[in-house]
Amino acid sequence: MKKTILTLMGAALLVGSCGHRTAATDGAQDTISSDVQDTTQQVSQEPSQPLPEGAVTVAEANGLVVLAKTVQTASEDDPATIKTLWLYDCNSGRVDSLLTTNPFAELRWEDMNGRPVGVALSQIAAADKVMFVPAHPRLLLVEGCPEARNVWTYIIDLEAKTARQFPSTEGILSFSASGDTLVLGAYRYHEEGGRYSVARTYTLEGQLVREDVLDD
Questions:
Q1: Order of all β-strands in the sheet with 82-89
Q2: Cα(201)–Cα(185) distance, integer angstroms
Q3: 181 contact partners, CB below 8 Å, separation of at least 6
Q4: Which long-range contacts (CB under 8 A, 24 or more apart) does 141-148 make?
Q5: Mean pLDDT score of the chain, rounded to an integer?
Q6: Centroid of chain to Cα 214
Q7: Which range among 41-45, 62-66, 147-151, 174-178 shows the weakest confidence by mean pLDDT?
Q8: What CA–CA distance (Å, rounded) separates 11 from 129?
Q9: Which runs of E-coded beta strand occur in the chain?
Q10: What is the secondary structure of 148-199 as a DSSP string?
Q11: pTM
């Protein structure tokens, strides 16, 4: 079987380009994806309200900064990690609460039928990875693994305050350079048993472009 070589483009976090003010506390990076190395965010405008104490920068593009704060860490008694995401506009100083992850978000796999479905921001299950879509600074990809099995992937429209969950089970593999398509991992089952991985290319609108089988 032909193996598609995939690279994650546009995932690098651009931290520290807004000015002069610190917006994260030391040590908080341990609660966010290992992709985040620098937890200080500098801004050019004073924020309209205090930034969340303990929040860290997880994504930045064109003067927009996404901050994340862990409000509940997974434990043996409660396996759910809950985070809040905040959107900070460096140019205007505006700070908005974007969402709080919901580990009890409704399962939508049966509704997808190979296409993404609209979900409320209150139904984002996890936010282990956060990144802006390349060349689309008003679109935010958020994904996580709330049930220790499947990765749930969402694209949030920051202007419309809407989200769509894509039919992915293994998360983002890559974006095109233009950001107009994305490749998501998923798995299928062999008729004789066992499962195998596939890479599905979608437009941002959710149209399936192609599906490639990945070698084991």
A1: 56-61, 64-72, 82-89, 95-100
A2: 9
A3: 175, 201, 202, 203, 204, 209
A4: 141/172, 141/182, 142/85, 143/168, 143/171, 143/172, 144/101, 146/80, 146/101, 146/103, 146/105, 148/79
A5: 81
A6: 23
A7: 41-45
A8: 10
A9: 56-61, 64-72, 82-89, 95-100, 117-119, 129-133, 136-144, 152-157, 162-166, 171-175, 181-189, 195-203, 208-213
A10: SS--EEEEEETTTTEEEEES-SSEEEEE-TTSSEEEEEEEEE-TTS-EEEEE
A11: 0.78
Angstrom distances, CA of residue 57 to CA of 12, 40, 98, 204: 12, 7, 14, 24
What residues contact 121, with CB distance under 8 A and at least 6 apart?
Answer: 98, 99, 156, 161, 162, 163
C-alpha 147/C-alpha 127 separation (Å) is 13
What's the CA gap between 174 and 134, in Å, rounded? 10
Strand-pairing partners, residue 153, are 143, 166
Cβ contacts of residue 164 below 8 Å, gap of 6+? 116, 117, 118, 119, 154, 155, 206
What six digits make up the tokens of 11? 């995932």
Express each pLDDT in 176-199 by its tens digit. 999 999 999 998 888 888 889 999
Q: How many CA atoms lie within 13 A of 210 on its CB side?
A: 5
